[in-house]
Amino acid sequence: MRNNPLLKGVRILDMSRILAGPWATQLLADYGAEVIKIEKPEVGDDTRQWGPPWLSGKKRLDNSDAAYFLSTNRNKRSLTCDFSTKEGALIIKKLIKSCDILIENYRAGTLEKYGLGEKQLKKINSKLIYCSITAFSETSSKSDESGYDAMIQASGGLMSITGEKEGKPQKSGVAIADIMAGMYAVTAILASLYQREKNHEGQRINIPLYDTQVAWLANQSMNYLIGGEIPVREGTGHPNIVPYQTFSTNDGEIMLAIGNDGQFKRLMTVLNETNTKFINKFKTNEQRIVNKEEIINFLQVIFIKNNANHWLSLFREHGIPCGPINNIQEVFNDSYSKERNIVRYTVTSDNEKVPTVANPVTFSSYKIQYNRAPPKLSEHTNEILKENLGYSDTEIEKLRSKNIV
Fold first, then answer.
1. Which residues share a beta bridge with 164?
2. Bridge partners of 354?
C-alpha cells in the first residue's frame, strides 16, 4: 500500500482547547496534516488536568497527562506560547505565514485583541483557512457567551430526548456536542481546502456548538417540525421504529433493532408465531407504532424465557439485527475489536507506551499512521521555534525566562 499522506504539506495551527477543536485536528493529523498545538505555558490544554486516570498511574506524577487529553491529541507537536504578549503574538504571526489552517475555540473577539483575528491574519496569509468553534454564532446576540458540552446538550435539546421515559433528562455518556462540532469542522475544513485549490483564497469558518447540536437532532427535529408534537424520552426505544429497543432475557439485556417489515416477518417466523390475525395487526411499521405497547409486551414475555446468548445466536442465524449490551471492557475484549486492531499504541519521548483508539476510516491507498504519542507540554517548543522560525537558543531562552514560551 502506498502511504503518501492525504494531507501531505498541510500545516495546521491548533489554538483550540478541551475537545471539539483537538478532536478535529487529531482527525486531520491522522490524514497526514502537520499539527502544531498551541498551549499556555506551564498549564497547557485544560484536559491535561482532567484526571484521574493519569498516564503515570492512579496518582498524578511529574505532570503526567490525563487520559482525557490523550484521547484527542495524537500525531501533534506542542508549542507553548503566551500570545497575549507582544512577543507571543509575534510567534503566532510568523507561524501563520507557512500555515494553511488555523482552528480556535475562544470566545468571539478574543483573538482580535491580540492581533490574531481572521482579518488581521489574512493580511499576513491570504490563503489561510480560519476556523472558529464557538458556543453560539459569532454574528448572534449570544456571541460573547461561553459554553461547555453539557450545557449545549441541555439547551440544544439532546437531554430532553435522552433517558428513561419516566426518568430525568440525561446527557450522553461522552461529550457528543463537542465531538460533533469537531466532525463538522473537519468536513468544512476539507471542503475549504478543495475550494482553495480552485480560487486560491482562504475561507472563514464558524461552527457554533449550539447550532451543531440542533443540526444533528436529525429525525427528532423533523418529527417536531412535520408532526408538531414535542419529542419525548424513549429510553432505549425509538420514536419512529418498532420494535427497536432493549429487551430483558433471563440473564441480561439484548438490543433488538427491527428496521423494516421483512425483518419483522422473519422475527415472527423465528418465534414460531403462526396466528395470521395477530401478525397482520403488526404487519407494517406504522401499525407497530400504533400498537407499540402490545407488541413490546408480547415480545418481552417470550424473551424472558431464555438467555441472551440463545436469542442473539438465533437472531444472527436468521439475519435479524440484534446485539449485546457491552460495557467498555467487553467492547475492547470482543473478538471483532481484536480482529480490527482497534487498540493501537504510540510511544512518548520518555518511552512510555500510550494506547489509542484507531481511526475507523479505511482508505484503499493510504494507511493511517500513529506516529506520535500525544505530546508532553511544550515538548516541541524549541524544535518549532528553531527549525520553523529560525530563533536562536539565546532568543528562546530569553522567551522562556519571561514565561512567553
1. none
2. 346
Q: How far apart are CA 330 and CA 332, in angstroms?
A: 6
183-209 in b/e burial notation, b at 16+ Cβ within 10 A?
bbbbebbbebbeebeeeeebbebbbbb
Rounded to two decimals, what is the model's pTM? 0.94
Cis link prior to 22 (omega < 30° from 0)? no
- Domains in the chain and their CATH numbers? 11-216+339-401 (3.40.50.10540), 244-325 (3.30.1540.10)
Of the candidates 26, 28, 29, the one whose C-alpha atom is nearest the C-alpha of residue 47 is 26
- Catalytic: 178? yes
207, 188 Cβ separation under 8 angstroms: yes
CA–CA separation, 363 and 10 (whole Å)? 19
Burial of residue 79, with CB atoms counted within 10 A of its CB: 0-12 exposed, 13-18 middle, 19 or more buried: buried
What digits encode the pLDDT tens for the residues 235-254? 999 999 999 999 999 999 99
Candidates 73, 201, 203; CA nearest to 131 is 203
**Residue 241: alpha-carbon gap to chain centroid:** 26
- What whole-number distance in Å separates Cα of residue 391 and Cα of residue 384? 9
DSSP 116-163: -SHHHHHTT-TT-EEEEEESS-TTSTTTT----HHHHHHHTTTGGGSS
CA distances to 142, 242, 247, 273, 290 from 283, rounded to whole Å, are 49, 11, 20, 13, 11
Q: Name the grid cell of 225.
A: 417540525
- Evaluate whether 404 touches 87 at the Cβ level (below 8 Å): yes
Q: What counts of helices (H) and strands (E) characterise the chain?
A: 17, 11
At 315-373, the pLDDT tens digits run 999 999 999 999 999 999 999 999 999 999 999 998 999 999 999 999 999 999 999 99
**Within a 10 A sphere around the Cβ of 336, how many other Cβ atoms?**
8
- How far is 344 from 104, CA to CA, in rounded Å? 28
Other residues' Cβ atoms within 10 Å of the Cβ of residue 175: 21
Q: Which of 45, 178, 251, 350 is catalytic?
A: 178
| Cα radius of gyration rounded to whole Å, the chain | 25
Long-range contacts of 282-288 (CB under 8 A, 24+ apart): 285/240, 285/241, 285/242, 285/260, 285/261, 288/242, 288/243, 288/264
Q: What Å distances lie between residue 157 and 151, 160, 170, CA to CA?
A: 10, 5, 11
